[in-house]
Amino acid sequence: MRSWPGPAVPRLPGEGVRLRLFDTARGEVRETAAGPKARMYVCGITPYDATHLGHAVTFLTFDLVHRMWLDAGHEVDYVQNVTDVDDPLLERADRDGEDWTKLAERETELLREDMAALRILPPTFFVGAVEAIPEIVERVVALLDQDAAYRVGDDVYFSVDADPRFGYESSLDADTMWRLSAENGGDPERPGKKNPLDPALWRAAEDGSPSWNSVLGAGRPGWHIECASIALNRLGTRFDVQGGGRDLIFPHHEMTAAHAETLTGEWPFAEHYVHVGMVGLDGEKMSKSRGNLVFVHRLRADNDPAVVRLALLADHYRADHEWSPARVDEAKDRLATWRRAVDLAAAPSALPLLADVRGRLADDLDTPGALSAVDDWVAEALRAGGDDPTAPGLVRDLVDGLLGVAL
To answer: What is d(CA 352, CA 14) in angstroms, rounded to the nearest whole number?
Structure first.
């Protein structure tokens, strides 16, 4: 699948700082990317609707991870999937009387446009579920061969009991797992399953739904095995970061890890499981069911994309975000002020600012602190000027390179 064009990233003076991130599985902030090549998998969209702010804040968070790794001298292999066949997509297409493949193509293209406008660095591998079906089938067959999967009728399920560490990532109790499974595409009450939590690996063909012929019979893949297969085949195991929104902790990331670890016998699937807070509007979480999604392309129609990016950077990634028009106004003022400062002929030295921003972002992506540090330098530059003619250009580059904001 085609990705999107990425912006050039300025090379900054000095040395980058090792990035530390909160790991959901261990419950602590730990250093990432010990090796020369950093590897990351971020769960992408199901393209039944346009890119909303929940998607944007997630992809922006891992764009910062990408940028910090590059600044620290790592090569980066970054994989993102697109779940371009799944129930929400098929339901939307049926509701609107539209071909599901055309809907998926249109919304994926809009994602590309939104990501390019927000200056999100593109993934190394941008992979759709449909194009990955042959490799997914191979992984399901392997799980059947290991007696880690079984059939219920013509469907194939994964046995969570095959993974002795199942549950380590989310650390949830069984009742909570049952509830979240039922709310997120699982079928814990289906008769014939060995464990109510066992997720589908392969769903047999049904009238009116797309299916693919395979040695498993005609059907289509489950959600979790999609990401496990795509990640394993491009990153291997024990890669540095698996990322996504906090709503993916269970069942999606827990099940994906269980599939991969059972297939390979290696643990953990990822060294860090990193999760982004939810975005709310008027005190409620944004969601399709509530009909309160704010879409990136609509914000871009009325605002410089740098304004949208700055507005999303104002909260720490792990915090829940409350969106409001006031955030846009604050970001507009901040962007205009920063641009005035970098247009000065000379300003105070920016080397201390570079070290400060690097340090704040390296500390679990402290974006509010990083923005505040730039604000302080800008205020001083506009108030008292300075004698360093290289400083405005360096600030322009560091804001671009580390925060992804074009001044």
So the answer is: 11
Three-state secondary structure call for residue 203: strand
Answer for the pair 128, 79: CB distance below 8 angstroms, yes or no.
no
Say how far apart CA 364 and CA 317 lie, in whole Å.
9
Find out whether 150 and 156 touch, Cβ atoms under 8 Å: yes
Cβ contact 388:346 at 8 Å: yes
269 neighbors 238 (Cβ within 8 angstroms): yes
Listed in sequence order, the residues at least 6 apart from 61 whose beta carbon sits closer than 8 Å to its beta carbon are 243, 274, 276, 317, 365
Within 13 Å of residue 181, how many CA atoms lie on the same side as its CB? 24
- The 10 Å CB-count burial string (b at 16+, else e) for 358-372 is bebbbebbbbeebbe
Q: What DSSP character marks residue 363?
A: B
- Any long-range contacts for 286-291 (C-beta under 8 Å, 24+ apart)? 286/52, 286/53, 286/54, 286/323, 288/48, 288/49, 288/88
The SS3 of residue 199 is coil
For the segment 42-73, what is each residue's pLDDT rounded down to a tens digit?
999 999 988 899 999 999 999 999 999 999 99
Predicted confidence (pLDDT) per residue in 172-204, tens digit: 999 999 999 999 999 999 999 999 999 999 999
Strand order in the sheet with 219-221: 149-152, 155-158, 200-204, 219-221
The values of phi and psi at residue 307, to 5°, are: -65, -45
The separation between CA 61 and the C-alpha centre of its own chain, rounded to angstroms, equals 7
